[in-house]
């Protein structure tokens, strides 16, 4: 992990925005939580703070995934089952990595690396495709 603890791990910018107000607002919320988690890695009460951020992130991600999946249903997105399966896979992987961090089997940095990589990969490919489809559908 290259970023300094004081600097945000993910810097939100227009480059990360996909052009759907709700999805972008929720993605920014996820970025804020990942950055907050990162800022607590050197805290004396690191485990408490990281777990607090993770709990918020689970709830936030659940709501976000639910909204994206409802949108897919509404617009008849053809790839919705695979996209939804990727959301479930993310929740499972985050859960497994959290367990490994809590039991000292892996450093918290591994969990954060996974979250950052997943966020960039998933939003720039899967979510971007969904937003493009939604825009094309609403234009027709
Ligand atoms: Fe998303
Ligand atoms: Fe998604």
Describe this structure in words.
The chain is mainly α and 140 residues long. It has one domain (19-139): Four Helix Bundle (Hemerythrin (Met), subunit A) (Up-down Bundle). The protein has helices spanning 21-39, 46-75, 80-102, 108-139. α1 packs antiparallel against α2, α1 runs antiparallel to α4 and α2 (46-75) runs antiparallel to α3. The radius of gyration is 16 Å and the shape is globular. It binds fe (ii) ion (2 copies).
Beta-strand content bin:
under 5%
CATH overall fold name: Four Helix Bundle (Hemerythrin (Met), subunit A)
CATH level 1 name:
Mainly Alpha
| CATH architecture annotation name | Up-down Bundle
Number of domains: 1
Q: Report helical residue fraction.
A: over 70%
| Secondary structure category | mainly alpha
Low-confidence stretches: none
Secondary-structure element string: HHHH
What general outline do the C-alpha atoms trace?
A: globular
Number of helices: 4
Corresponding CATH superfamily:
Hemerythrin-like
Largest sheet: none
Please, what is the oligomeric state?
single chain
Number of strands: 0
* Rg result: 16 Å
The hetero molecules present are: fe (ii) ion
Distance between the termini: 44 Å
Quick check: average pLDDT?
Answer: 92
